[in-house]
Design brief:
The chain is α+β, with helices and mostly antiparallel strands and about 170 residues long. The protein has helices at about 10-15, 40-45, 100-105, 105-115, 135, and strands spanning about 5-10, 25, 85, 90-95, 120-125, 130. The chain has one domain. The N and C termini lie far apart (about 60 Å).
Length: about 170
């Protein structure tokens, strides 16, 4: 099930961020790789293997560079139903609420995201808003942005001269 736009009610989150509890935030679906969701298509009949290892049969393109000495897939992905994530408490959450999972370790970023300071938020400042998930900008397995090559400085355009030859 891939809705075109998932509407998430964040009453508690908005209240914590100083917004009214009835504020509605719109969040687009997560940026899944084509054909990979729902995860249960493949994982429903697979035995759960909690051993930290390099994946070689599937998902071998994923390189975990996100606290890789301490983290493993099942620290975030639910072991018994891969169509869900889970919080440290064990509470299952949908991928559309992955910001709650990220916010467990990155609380200051979650606070800033809710306030519209970190990430991309559109909409009215005092009304309905649309947010992007962390995964729209950060690869959750390798969240750091890759280095960008510096570009040359822009050229300053010439100012038009008036008919007398002076600047306006």
């Amino acid at each position: 099930m891939k809705p075109s736009l998932v509407t998430v009610l964040l009453a508690a989150a908005c209240a914590a961020a100083g917004h009214g509890g009835d504020e509605r935030l719109e969040i687009p679906p997560p940026p899944f790789t084509e054909g990979i969701f729902p995860c249960s298509t493949c994982h429903a009949d697979l035995k759960v293997n909690r051993t930290r290892r390099v994946l070689t049969e599937m998902h071998d393109d994923i390189q975990l560079r996100h606290d890789e000495q301490h983290r493993w897939c099942l620290d975030c992905h639910d072991a018994t139903d891969r169509d869900w994530l889970h919080l440290a408490s064990g509470e299952r959450i949908p991928f559309e609420q992955s910001y709650l999972l990220c916010g467990q370790c990155h609380g200051e970023k979650l606070r800033d995201w809710r306030a519209g300071v970190h990430g991309r938020r559109t909409g009215s400042w005092n009304g309905q808003k649309s947010y992007l998930l962390c995964a729209h900008c950060h690869n959750p397995h390798q969240p750091r942005f890759r280095s960008l090559a510096p570009k040359p400085a822009p050229h300053r355009p010439e100012r038009p001269k008036d008919e007398t030859g002076g600047l306006p």
